[in-house]
Amino acid sequence: MEISEAQYRHIEACLPRQRGNVSMTNLAVLNAILYVAEHGCKWRGLPKRFGNWHTIYTRMNRWSKSGVLDTVFETLQREQIVRIRIESVSLDSTIVKVHPDGTGALKKTAPKPSVNPAADGPPRFIWLPRMLERP
To answer: Is 124 a residue whose pLDDT tops 70?
Structure first.
C-alpha cells in the first residue's frame, strides 16, 4: 500500500512544509507509515528501502502529536486514495495487575468453583484483544 506522486499532490497541503537539510521526503515517510500500518511490523522491521527507521518514527510521532497524521488519513479516505481504518489496542504490563497466584505466592485455600457459573457474570479480565469487525 503505497501512494504515488499524483496521489500525494492531493494531500500535500495537509503535511508540514519541509525546511532545511531534510534527508527524507514527506512522501517517503508517509509510504513507510502506510507499510507499518498494513503489515503490522515493528519500526525496526521496516525494509531498508524506506530509509532509517528512527527518522521515520520520529517524524510520525511529531505528526501524530500535532494532529497532522489524523488530517492526512481523513484526507486519504475522503479522496478515496487509500481505504484504511487504523485502530490499535495496547496492553501495557505496567498497568495490568497480576493475580497473586501469577507471582508464585502460596495459595491459602483451594479454589471453590461456583455452582452456577452464569451467576458469576462475565470475567473481569481480558486475555487477548478481539477483532470486532474486519476492515
So the answer is: no
Q: Grid coordinates representing 88?
A: 490499535
Crossing angle between the packed helical segments 53-66 and 26-39, to the nearest 10 degrees:
90
Tell me how crowded residue 72 is: count the other CB atoms within 10 A of its CB. 19
According to the per-residue pLDDT averaged within each range, which of 6-10, 18-22, 111-115, 119-123 is highest?
Answer: 6-10
Tell me if the pTM is above 0.90. no
Confirm if 68 and 15 have CB atoms less than 8 A apart. yes
- Structural contact between residues 91 and 129, judged by C-beta atoms closer than 8 angstroms: yes
Distance, CA of 10 to CA of 3 (rounded, Å): 11
Which one, of 84, 17, 13, 21, lies nearest residue 55 by Cα? 21
CA distance 116 to 91: 31
Give the separation between CA 56 and CA 28, rounded to whole angstroms: 9
Q: Grid coordinates 512522501 are at which residue?
A: 27
Where are the domains positioned within the chain?
5-78
